[in-house]
Amino acid sequence: MGIDAGGTYTDSIIIRDSDGKVMDSNKALTTYPDLLTGIKNSIDGLDEKYLKDVKMVSVSTTLATNTILEKNGYPVGLILVGDYEIPERKDIEFYTIVKGGHDHHGAELVSLDMEAVEAFVSKVRDKVSAFAVSSYFSIRNPAHELAVKARIQELTGMPVVCGHELSLDLGAYERGITAYLNAQLIPIANQFIRSIREEISRRGMDSRLLMLKCDGSVVGINEALEKPIESIFSGPAASLVGASHLSGLETCAVIDVGGTSTDVSMLENGLPELCEEGAVVGGWQTKVKAIRMETSAMGGDSHVWIRNMKINIGPRRVIPLCVAAVKYPGFLEVLRKGRIPGAMHLDENVQPTKFFVRTGIEPSDLGKFEAELFDRIGDFPASLNDIFWETRKTLSPGLLDSLIRKRLVQAIGFTPTDALHVLGEYTAWDQEASRVGAKLLERYTETDHIEICKQIKQDVARNMALNLVSFIQTDVPSSEIEKILLSDRFTQFKMKIPVVLIGGPVVAYTRELKQILDADIIIPEHAEVGNAVGAVVGKGIKRIEILIKSAYSKDKKRLVLLFSPQGRETFGSYPDALEYADVLGRKLIMEYMTEAGLDKGQIQIEVSRKDISLSEAGAVPLETKLVFVGVGMPKV
SUPFAM superfamilies in the record, alphabetically (predicted)? Predict the structure, then answer.
């Protein structure tokens, strides 16, 4: 079983492992803030006769990404060891910088100031739930990080995350941020995974549990608990893997049209292209290796709003009118009879089709004016116009933004999903609510409501094409690409690889997309639940990097240093170091694969080697970088 808890829908799917055939699938609305309710609803729609035979469950989730974006992580104490320059943007409440660190050969630069560590821990231990530590050049020698970790656990018993455990890339501060964010997520991941396990057990399923990482690979649940940061952006990774499986293509571009965003990525020879500098999430530069993708805040549930007779789409997500009419009985009548704002007053929150409703989350720490506005919004959708005429008090649309960001209030509005309902190309919800909404927008544009919906559909298709071409042509500014896309002067982009579409009603955009792109556009069967497919068919992929460097001791003797995830080791000769590295790299790959529950008989390991030399061939290199990539399939 694969489960994908996305921004709008939670998809579940059952695949027969003998031949990869999809046996059953279901979609349910994602529930906030408790994702488990949406997961239960999604599984409930599956045929029960298959559940008892499910031996493996793999999950991809937006939980980590949303927690970081919404700044809802648990409080963490960050300890930076070494001489750091902290950027001006530092939204970290509890942190300290202490003396210590190593050089690029792994030799100690400055002794570790353990007393400063102990003083910081004593000061914040009652205010945090975990600690993170990053030491200067810990990728060459993690001794100071490990010493700090051991001491904190001895003093507090709390979880401690080390930077070198998550990344062996240069950038001590970024490794620290990665460790910090990871520590924030550990309690949340524990709770989520425990809930999933209980749900699987409650249904009588004797199943192993895996999670999808943001590089498109699956990971054993123990590592998922230790490194929840690696599940950020696992949704786009799931769409990429799912698209490859459903289409049977090893090389393709993938466009995933979700409710909140449109994501573009690419698979080449079965492996995704990774963002080498690390993923950026919530403004934080991390060292997490995620798939490279082009994303935009335009999806099926993006808000369509009017200002100055111009149609705008997004960037915010709302509940489509067609969905709200089903979710809130009586809403259709309110939409028909609602008070219409004047054209001069229109903005993103003041629209004839924009309504607000409570989410059910209890508020805390609201300001006076926030609390007043929250009290005026109830459990049934109401527009700002309705609230004003009931209270006769002027409202600040900006206050609504604050309540929405705090997940206390959610918005309802016209969306591209509604446009498809009006055009009759996707009718899963209340078609009449979408039609009424479109006719309301018609009043402000002097354009027929059918033409409005056709334009919205065209704009979404053009955005898909812009994302795709921008992703492929990284050296061309997107503004220049957009000029060509908007032009009708006998130009069209040609794609040399197939383009696979994944997501709900993506088939509706095929004709418009083909008018913009000359491409082999493929919509595979079960494209609407492609992410859930990706969650369950993901391969186990592990990358291990080992660096070997020539060096000299203090007494000028030649040494060979080896740096691996296990730390620094010294050898007397280069051949000895190379032989040891080959054995170690393969051993670490197999240990990881075994822990993740992958089939030993199906694990393939490839090794690439890059030498840096100053002299002719045959001489001992100054430096050798070995990269071990293991690929395996989950064992059922």
Answer: Actin-like ATPase domain
